[in-house]
Design a protein that fits this description.
two-stranded antiparallel sheet
């Protein structure tokens, strides 16, 4: 394994692990706040137990996310020294502000965990909201830094020299809004469905059904609303990519040839040698409309770009298809839940629906991982789009592959520990609810 492959593999592994905890850290405080609001307004003991237990889960996952995020920060400097040498002064502002948001989040979480029966009940509730706001702000700022890598601005570049640096302009780059919007909505959808799936399992098994039904409804309502909003952010992202990174859009769709009335491809098998997608469903004009808002407008294909600048087409295309498929499934289930729960009130008595939600527990996180694969792999071979190639930014330090193997072990170990602790938390929920009923 050469340095470039080892460094990219280690970065991908760390990001894949960290992003799950980032999503949960952004969204769980808001789910928790809904239950806390219900406790404050109704006095129903089940919401007290649910809020307190969810808050413990937030604390556990916050610590794990902090550890994995710190590891990523070190990896940026150690694995990509030339990138950080030039990029650090340009896009350092969102990272420094992200650090501030992180500290506010940590302080607010400390107040929240300590504040039971000590603070005014609405001040205590607001501390939980502040945890979520800080987490979302932190996520937006990190995505702004990644957006700069996809749409570099805020500097002049001549003969390999970066000058006239404007950090604020770099942070407010052309990509940050569409990426941040898509990521935040995806986090709400993934976490909502993930939490709902866990409680759906216990409701399906008959474990204190009244309690888990309430938790399930809170989480799935939030997840379903987010799933409905996701196509809107997807449309904004597609139109943005068509302007800024048409090569990435072409790779996402395996769109080999420039054409008017370009079809949207669903499924299929990519045939690189013949430059086509076999066995795919093609919707005429849909890609043109998605990219430009017009069914007849030409969409640039891969044939318009040098082959040495093409990203890995197969990986990018399949990751995009997986992301879209997961999103569509969650949107359909969310629609069924919202309509049925509003109009008929009996959807939770349907075992087939509960079973579907249980199966969909990891679906949102699969979509998030696939989406980040599209974002990062689809940018290759550039680490700073159009400015610096990834191979020119990697460290020459030997032995990176051993770090990769070590981190695999660390992340597997952390996953086992966190899973064990969270299972104990679920058991704690059931015990607390049983004792409250007695």
């Amino acid at each position: 394994m050469d340095n470039l492959l080892a460094a990219r593999s280690l970065m991908a592994l760390s990001m894949a692990f960290h992003i799950i905890f980032s999503c949960i850290g952004m969204v769980m405080p808001f789910i928790m706040a809904v239950a806390h609001y219900k406790w404050n307004t109704t006095g129903d003991k089940k919401y007290y137990i649910l809020t307190k237990t969810w808050s413990r889960g937030v604390a556990i996952l916050f610590v794990t996310g902090a550890v994995s995020g710190t590891m990523l920060s070190f990896e940026l400097g150690l694995l990509w020294p030339r990138f950080m040498q030039h990029a650090g002064p340009i896009f350092g502002m969102p990272f420094s502000l992200e650090g501030t948001a992180f500290f506010i989040e940590a302080i607010a979480l400390g107040f929240y965990m300590y504040g039971w029966e000590r603070f005014n009940k609405w001040f205590h509730w607001f501390m939980g909201i502040l945890v979520g706001i800080s987490g979302v702000s932190s996520g937006i700022l990190v995505v702004a830094a990644n957006g700069w890598m996809n749409s570099p601005t805020g500097f002049d570049y001549h003969d390999g020299v970066f000058s006239n640096i404007d950090p604020l302009k770099a942070m407010m780059n052309d990509a940050w809004f569409s990426q941040a919007l898509h990521m935040i909505i995806a986090a709400f959808s993934a976490t909502g469905f993930g939490v709902a799936g866990i409680h759906a399992y216990h409701y399906y098994k008959g474990h204190y059904p009244e309690f888990h039904k309430s938790a399930f409804k809170i989480a799935l309502t939030i997840g379903s609303i987010a799933a409905f909003l996701q196509p809107i952010s997807g449309d904004i992202s597609a139109k943005d990519l068509a302007k800024r990174q048409p090569l990435k859009l072409a790779a996402m769709e395996a769109h080999f040839h420039t054409q008017n009335n370009a079809p949207l491809i669903i499924g299929g098998i990519v045939n690189i040698e013949q430059e086509r997608v076999d066995y795919a469903i093609k919707i005429p004009g849909a890609l043109s409309f998605l990219a430009h808002g017009n069914f007849e407008t030409a969409v640039k294909g891969l044939d318009q770009f040098p082959k040495d600048e093409h990203p890995p087409i197969v990986i990018t295309h399949y990751a995009f298809q997986i992301m879209v498929a997961c999103g569509v499934i969650m949107m359909i289930l969310g629609f069924i839940f919202l309509i049925s729960n509003w109009k008929f009130k009996n959807i939770l008595n349907k075992k087939w629906f509960l079973y579907c939600i249980i199966l969909c527990t990891p679906l949102g996180f699969i979509a998030v991982e696939a989406g980040w694969t599209v974002t990062e792999v689809g940018r290759q071979p550039w680490v700073i789009y159009g400015i610096m190639k990834t191979k020119d930014a990697v460290t020459q330090m030997p032995g990176i592959q051993y770090s990769f193997y070590f981190f695999i072990f660390v992340y597997i170990f952390l996953t086992i520990i966190v899973t064990w602790i969270m299972r104990r938390q679920i058991k704690f929920i059931n015990e607390q609810y049983l004792s409250s009923k007695n």
